[in-house]
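>> received
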Amino acid sequence: MLIQCTKALLNQIGIKHSELASSGDYEQFPSSFMSWHANFVSLDKGKAIILMNNETRYPIVIYKPKKKDLFKIKELICEAISVALRMEGVRKEVIETYMAKAGEISFSQTSGRSMVAKMNNAVREIGFMQEFLDEETTIQRYISIAAGRLIQGSGTNEYFYPYEKMLQCLGIVALNKSEAVDEVLDVELYQLKIQINLEGHDIWRRVLVPSTYSFRHLHHIIQTVFDWQNYHLHEFVVGRGENERLLQIVMDDDPETMEFVNFDNVEIRKEQFVALEDIFPKYNVVSYEYDFGDSWEHTITLEKVVKSKSFQATYIDGNGERPPEDVGGAPGFEEYLSLIENKKHPMHHEMKAWAENQKERKFSPEKIDQRLKRTISGYSYSPFSC
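>> returned
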């Protein structure tokens, strides 16, 4: 495996010019797939090594490496690539085959201007996505998933997503098949039942979610399957054993979220850095609260674990219509139902008109699955049924 380094990175890892391999022709497949460009850069939050695969332009980030990390840079790079691919649901055997065929790491200078320009673009994109940089870890787990889904151009009016091209190339190199993306993947899915805790009402959704998805992804999924409008704050809570502190998994988009947290009584973690597999199946039940005013509490239960060749969330079934947004919590919901059912009430038509933009829209299972495909990149409520 060839790591084509900028001068800044070569200086950091202490590679002398006489120790460099020839950069050769690593822009043509399959050699291009066995090589990565790498740079040592300053981001707003700290220093980072950014790797970009020559063929697929899939990015990987090693964040705030210490001196001891630089002494074992080869091992660190191999681990970072393996971790990123595993987070995408790639089979362990496929990763091992790719690493074996790529061979031992050697270092060279960067190649032509074209590859340097592509690497600079990868650095720029990472710079725009620093919310996914986990201060607590060196090998970043989630920024590759996010950045790998930014569309790239090839210069010949052809466009592609790095993660898709990465899976295609892994199939060719590791399995010797041109159409083998499903065989590349071995995804562990959690079957989750998500129920709104509302007395007298049976409102729930059942979904399959990849175990490496983060709790931020799960938030997007919950918003999607209930058609919540994502207008309010939220948090997850994990009730642990008697000798363990309560675990709150929180968003940090709004300063108020962190400002009022009691760090003495609970452990706090940010949702974009916590994988579902970090919590499940050790803890089978997690609480999710959306809208701290209306306080819509959901109970998330792990029902079973299944294997799949698809790295995406899927809707299974559900029951009941969720309460309208901003209806006033449980008491307001009961009042709303009473007014809607009583056509003679003077506020019936007014309430019905208000609810048109607040209640859950009806989507087919196929439409829900289509919307769920986009939750890995985020969730923004649209008034249009798309």
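>> DSSP finds 14 helices and 15 strands in the chain.
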